[in-house]
Amino acid sequence: MKRDTDIKREVVDELCWDPCIGEMDIRVSVKDGVVTLDGSVGSYFEKKSAEDAALRISGVKAVANEIMVKLPGASERSDEDIARASVDALKWDVAVPFDKIKVTVENGIISLHGEVDWRYQKDAAERAVCNLWGVKEVLNQITVKPKVKPEDIKAKIGNALQRSAMLDAQKIIVEASGSKVILRGSVRSWLERQEAGVAAWSAAGVTEVENNIKVSP
User: Fold this and answer.
1) Are 81 and 140 part of one and the same domain?
2) Domain count of the chain?
């Protein structure tokens, strides 16, 4: 098992290495493999990039992202401008079913609402708006409408796990209850845990994934 001090050092190095993160005022603390990030950055994109960077480090069990977005004066935009830009971004993204999604903006915080058929469409909608200037936070409240039977979901996820070169499918247990999927077992890194979650969310009709896979380096 990695020591918390080693994890902290590697997270700090990764944050400094990541070109998506500009001038950094981010503090890192680690306890029992759980990383807490706080401080401030100049955009929501940088906040998310910092979280992703921490999750890439082996031994990390979870990340608490408490970073504040403090926009430079030139980056301040009205809610009306952000809403208009969000609508355009969603409309131009081929992965987003634009007609099924509604956008509201308040104090720089974007809320996404609606119902889609696939998890990737929900994720694509969030990605489309999170990099816009002036955005402080994105609340993705889009729901996924189930379309298939639980047994079909379980079988398709199991097949997807077996196809993944990154994962040892024999160590992962898949359970399906309605449109909810529960993952159990163990993997070697947080990245593998994430990969299993992505595979589960990729099945049509999945509305919730409870990822109980343990990270055992």
Assistant:
1) yes
2) 3
